[in-house]
Fold:
Amino acid sequence: MILVTGGAGFIGANFVLDWLAQSDEPVVNLDKLTYAGNLENLASLADDARHVFVKGDMGDKALVAGLLATHQPRAVINFAAESHVDRSIHGPEDFIQTNIVGTFGLLEAVKAHWMAMENGAKAAFRLLHVSTDEVYGSLGLGDAAFTETHRYEPNSPYSASKAASDHLVRAYHHTYGLPVLTTNCSNNYGPCHFPEKLIPLMIVNALAGKPLPVYGDGQQIRDWLYVKDHCSAIRRVLDAGKPGEVYNIGGWNEKPNIDIVHTVCALLDELRPKADAGSYSAQIAYVTDRPGHDRRYAIDASKIERDLGWKPAETFDTGIRKTVAWYLANPDWVANVQSGAYRAWTTRQYGGALGSQQEVAA
Ligand code: NAD
Ligand code: DAU
Structure:
């Protein structure tokens, strides 16, 4: 049994789906169901007894303590977070509360549980904290990619709050011996990505005939990894990572934003041609830049490749094609997210009965 937090979000849901596709080890999924949590992502697990969904806050120590005592997981994987940089600029408070205070609550509950475990289970237990390359700040064009020892220089309220959570996780290992693993991953893309982030926003806006808003000059560089490859890396770190260690995850796949947008448009031109045979790229609109916009991220993935033998399965060409195809094949998912109907999905699925701390096989 493993306990996952934030498993109704983009990466967490992909992780839960992949986990249960590859093993019968059950998952307890603790998610607060913020705007970013969407149980429709997990609809294929309806009536699957291996998945136990719990609506609640990872910072609720009593709730987490109860779940740990009841289910006795061998590992906790922490995906839960506020994750969108632009939202953190407009309203940082939720980011401080969730990413810092929430992680603290989770750590306290996990530490208390772990300290009381019997020796065998205690030695095998792991807390894996999922973090981001943004904690390292911004690179110049000629700078070497981020290694695990790169100085922390977070620039947005989001990345600062994630950096704080990483430091707390590190401190609980150093001070209390809690067997933690931290992963810092580059930008993910793939199915179930909420359309506030660059790639899904470009797909849904293009299809809706809306402008494709490119911040600033569009030359900012991100390092893209298909979400399923992030999930396989997390499974590998959980299996073989050394407690107390940090692993950077990435696929050596740096691209300027404007190239990403043109790639998405070209795929849509091929897979869903416009009636007038024009290109979706005509919808590109340069808009005001993000304040404090980091210029370049790049992950040096040598450590996880060398020490744990992990490699991504997808290239950017195969991953982005799968991603665009997924959005074209799932118009209902997109429509429900855009209309807000996905939030009512929980009520439809559970008859309005799903309250805080309630547990259901989802
Ligand atoms: P997301 O915003 O799609 O999902 C976050 C999930 O956490 C949601 O289901 C939400 O309901 C849940 N949540 C929020 N606050 C919670 C709380 N207090 N208790 C329980 N659940 C809560 O995020 P994502 O893109 O899937 O990112 C998952 C993790 O991976 C985050 O920690 C993020 O920082 C990290 N990360 C993301 C990327 C990326 O490109 N998306 C890259 C590297 C690392
Ligand atoms: O690097 C990992 C991080 O990647 C994660 O930790 C974050 O949770 C995740 O949201 C992502 O952060 P970014 O800020 O890099 O992702 P986003 O999709 O918001 O933006 C990607 C780039 O595209 C960034 O340079 C800003 C730009 N952008 C974004 C949007 C939403 C635009 O040009 N236009 C847009 O409309």
About this structure: The longest strand covers residues 126-132. The chain has 13 helices and 13 strands. The mean pLDDT is 95. Residues 93-115 form the longest helix (23 residues).
